[in-house]
């Protein structure tokens, strides 16, 4: 496919891909944004409905508490409960007959009867009924209940079958009304509030109902309960608002089991407590808070939903805001169709622009291709158009022009090069002949020099070159012969000196080995001495520490003894105070005894006066008798207390004597502790002085041991170095022995010896060259510090043992000494 065809197709494909990707990305982004907006709107709507319901329920709570605290409510309950007891054995049947069975108003309008006009109950009923009825209609409640403390429903506005029943034992003991009553009546909180979930209530023909209850308190006593029955009409009104939720969206209130508490506005039937929503989001919202996602199956569709929890009193509901997925996706599809239509128009426009643009590019390129074909065939008379263009096509035309110029220049150079090639060939032949002659001479010189170097490599120092070489190469022969002569003399001198070095190294190595052995023996003796001193120091240190601890404990014992004396003195004073207090209490008991005696007399007189009063004074006579008995019990108790206090005084006196004896014994113990502390302190001071002396001795021995160890290591290192020097001398002798020198090389050696700066001298006892010392005379080797033991050497006592004897005398105790083990050779003191 030609470029003129490819460019329009590529432009169309490029536009199609770019626009398709843009449309797809836009649709995906728009879908995400739409989903996010939908969930945000649903969450905001659900939160708004929750706030509306919460305000409505909080208003009911506040109204119930205010109504219960109203004086009119309290008086109504007081009057009704007072007349309740006079309704007979079966108040519920009597009230049903009066206000339900004989009520002329139809069912649902029984509340219009204000009074049956028969007894006090009817009068009390009439006083409160008008107010409660107005309050019910004003607030939109279904019914208002007054319940006494025993659980009797003594009053209702609507007069249904629960009127007059007992919520503890009656047929409605398991209803929500009974549950809120039980919670309120059993709570000790005067501000308790109870409510129940919506459920089917039989007295109201099975309609959904929820109950709230608060206590009625008079004179700080709970006399009954005020309860409201709430229908879900007002809640339905709150959740019937579907503004902003499209054609399929709504908000509903569900209980913990998922059943609808509010009726759905999108269905014709009543869904309350009949339709349920099943979704894991409900459990998540009930346990952890807000949740959002999708709900399947509700109203036969898939919905986007947001759920928020609603807690009111004892009940936890969930507010759900939802909208159908089809309605949401319909907006995405509509937006997508619009984007696709706009993209098709852009693709067509882009394709047309691509065709026009490709034609403007391919026409000059086709003309340029034809010109290049002619140039390739050798035709340089071509017409190039577009040399003045500044784009890539102009660059291509100018490049073809360069190729045409190059073709013309190439033809001119070919003719000129042919002429030069003939002259160059003759000069090349002459240079090759000269180079062959020089190469032959160089090859000969290399062969002669290589043969001599081969002999030199084999150790022959007599391999001089006698045959002269041609030209400048003969200088190389002379230099090689001179170097070989000097090397031969040097090797001869080195060979002689190596033997002398080897002899002297052997002597030094023997002396060094003897020194190393004796230094090791001395170091071992010092190590044993140092170890023994450390053991003695450890023993003295432990003794000193124990003496110091004993001294410190003696001081503490003395201090505790002094404190014990003070405590004993305080105890004696305290017992003296207790004894004084017992005397004061005895005086008070005597006064109480006298008061009891006088009270007994007064009670006796009161009893006589009451007897004189006859029937009217019987009650006072009983009181006087009780007072008399109380006075007698007080007198008896006073006597018992006095006896106990007397006995306590005697025991306290005995305790004082014992405590004083304890103080005397502790004083004697304190004196003895002081004497013990002085002795222990003296022992601790002596141990410290001994420890200080041993520390100085140990430091001196340690320094001696370090010096000896350093000497031993130096001797060992010197011995090792001398052994290595001996081996190196032997190796050097073997290496020098590989060279072959001339018989007359001694003259060369003598010539070298005359030069002092070379470091060689002649030895009269040997014909070979020996290493010479510098200009200064050579001193003999120093005598070793440790001389070998001779046969007549005497044994000298060890200085370490003398030091140990001195330590033993300083401590006042004899230390066990180990016998010297006699070795194969004696050793000298050094």
Q: How would you describe this structure to a colleague?
A:
- The chain has helices at residues 3-69, 71-84, 91-101, 120-139, 176-186, 233-239, 280-288, 325-376, 392-457, 473-613, 618-736, 746-753, 799-811, and strands at residues 143-148, 153-156, 194-195, 199-201, 207-218, 221-230, 250-254, 291-296, 302-312, 315-324, 760-762, 769-771.
- It has 830 residues and is an alpha+beta fold.
- Among the domains are: 70-230, Beta-Lactamase; 365-404, no CATH class; 432-472; 476-738, Methyl-accepting chemotaxis protein (Helix Hairpins).
- Strands 1, 2, 3, 4, 5 and 6 form a six-stranded antiparallel sheet that branches. Strands 7-10-9-8 form a four-stranded antiparallel sheet, with helices on both faces. Strands 11-12 form a two-stranded antiparallel sheet.
- Strand 1 and strand 2 form a beta hairpin.
- It is flat, with a radius of gyration of 66 Å.
* Overall helicity: 55-70%
**Measured distance between first and last alpha carbons:** 111 Å
- Sum up the overall morphology in one term: flat
| Strands, count | 12
Tell me the structural class.
Answer: alpha+beta
Count of alpha and pi helical runs? 13
**CA radius of gyration:** 66 Å
- Report on the biggest sheet: 6 strands, antiparallel
């Amino acid at each position: 496919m030609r470029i003129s065809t490819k460019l329009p197709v590529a432009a169309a494909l490029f536009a199609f891909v770019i626009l398709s990707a843009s449309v797809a990305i836009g649709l995906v982004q728009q879908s995400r944004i739409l989903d996010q907006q939908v969930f945000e709107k649903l969450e905001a709507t659900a939160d708004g409905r929750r706030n509306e319901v919460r305000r409505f329920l909080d208003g009911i709570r506040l109204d119930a508490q205010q109504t219960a605290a109203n004086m009119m409510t309290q008086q109504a309950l007081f009057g009704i409960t007072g007349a309740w007891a006079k309704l007979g054995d079966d108040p519920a049947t009597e009230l049903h007959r009066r206000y339900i069975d004989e009520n002329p108003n139809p069912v649902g309008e029984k509340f219009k009867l204000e009074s049956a006009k028969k007894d006090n109950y009817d009068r009390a009923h009439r006083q409160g009924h008008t107010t409660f009825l107005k309050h019910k209609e004003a607030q939109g409640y279904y019914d208002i209940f007054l319940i006494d403390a025993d659980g009797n429903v003594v009053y209702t506005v609507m007069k249904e079958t629960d009127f007059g029943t007992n919520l503890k034992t009656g047929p409605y003991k398991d209803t929500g009304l009974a549950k809120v009553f039980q919670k309120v009546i059993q709570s000790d909180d005067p501000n308790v509030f109870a409510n129940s979930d919506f459920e089917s209530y039989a007295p109201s023909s099975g309609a959904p109902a929820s109950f709230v209850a608060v206590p009625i308190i008079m004179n700080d006593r709970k006399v009954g309960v005020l309860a409201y029955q709430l229908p879900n009409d007002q809640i339905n009104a709150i959740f019937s608002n579907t503004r902003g939720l499209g054609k399929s969206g709504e908000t509903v209130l569900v209980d913990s089991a998922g059943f609808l508490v509010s009726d759905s506005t999108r269905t014709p039937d009543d869904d309350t407590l009949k339709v349920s929503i099943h979704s894991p989001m409900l459990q998540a919202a009930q346990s952890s808070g807000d949740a959002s996602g999708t709900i399947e199956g509700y109203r036969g569709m898939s919905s986007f939903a947001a759920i928020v929890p609603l807690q009111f009193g004892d009940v936890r509901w969930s507010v759900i805001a939802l909208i159908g997925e089809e309605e949401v996706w319909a907006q995405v599809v509509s937006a997508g169709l619009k984007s696709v239509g706009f993209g098709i128009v852009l693709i067509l426009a882009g394709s047309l622009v691509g065709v026009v643009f490709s034609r403007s590019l391919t026409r000059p390129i086709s003309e340029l291709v034809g010109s290049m074909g002619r140039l390739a065939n050798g035709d340089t008379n071509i017409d190039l158009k577009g040399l003045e263009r500044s784009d890539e096509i102009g660059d291509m035309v100018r490049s073809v022009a360069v190729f045409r110029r190059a073709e013309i220049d190439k033809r001119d150079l070919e003719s000129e090069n042919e002429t030069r090639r003939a002259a160059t060939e003759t000069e090349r032949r002459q240079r090759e002949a000269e180079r062959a002659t020089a190469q032959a001479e160089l090859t000969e010189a290399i062969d002669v020099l290589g043969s001599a170097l081969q002999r030199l490599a084999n150790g022959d120092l007599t391999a001089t070159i006698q045959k002269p070489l041609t030209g400048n190469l003969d200088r190389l022969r002379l230099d090689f012969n001179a170097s070989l002569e000097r090397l031969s003399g040097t090797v001869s001198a080195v060979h002689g000196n190596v033997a002398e070095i080897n002899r002297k190294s052997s002597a030094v190595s023997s002396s060094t080995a003897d020194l190393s052995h004796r230094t090791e023996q001395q170091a071992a003796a010092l190590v044993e001495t140092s170890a023994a001193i450390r053991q003695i120091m450890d023993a003295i240190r432990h003794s000193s520490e124990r003496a110091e601890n004993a001294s410190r404990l003696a001081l503490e014992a003395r201090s505790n003894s002094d404190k014990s004396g003070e405590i004993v003195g305080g105890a004696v004073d305290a017992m003296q105070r207790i004894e004084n207090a017992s005397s004061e209490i005895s005086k008070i008991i005597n006064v109480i005894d006298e008061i009891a005696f006088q009270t007994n007399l007064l009670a006796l007189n009161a009893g006589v006066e009451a007897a004189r009063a006859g029937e009217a004074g019987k009650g006072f006579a009983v009181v006087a008798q009780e007072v008399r008995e109380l006075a007698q019990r007080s007198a008896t108790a006073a006597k018992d207390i006095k006896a106990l206090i007397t006995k306590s005084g005697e025991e306290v006196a005995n305790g004082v004597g014992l405590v004083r004896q304890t103080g005397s014994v502790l004083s004697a113990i304190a004196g003895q502790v002081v004497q013990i502390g002085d002795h222990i302190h003296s022992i601790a001071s002596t141990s410290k002085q001994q420890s200080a002396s041993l520390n100085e001795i140990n430091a001196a021995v340690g320094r001696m041991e370090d010096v000896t160890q350093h000497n031993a290591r130096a001797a060992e290192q010197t011995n090792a170095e001398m052994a290595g020097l001996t081996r190196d001398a032997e190796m050097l002798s073997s290496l020098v022995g590989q060279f072959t020198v001339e018989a007359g090389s001694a003259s060369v050696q003598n010539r070298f010896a005359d030069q002092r700066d070379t470091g060689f001298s002649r030895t009269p006892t040997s014909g070979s060259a020996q290493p010479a010392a510098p200009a200064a005379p050579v001193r003999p080797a120093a005598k070793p510090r440790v001389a070998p033991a001779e046969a007549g050497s005497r044994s000298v006592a060890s200085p370490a043992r003398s030091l140990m004897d001195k330590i033993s005398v300083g401590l006042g105790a004899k230390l066990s000494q180990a016998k010297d083990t006699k070795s194969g050779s004696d050793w000298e003191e050094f």
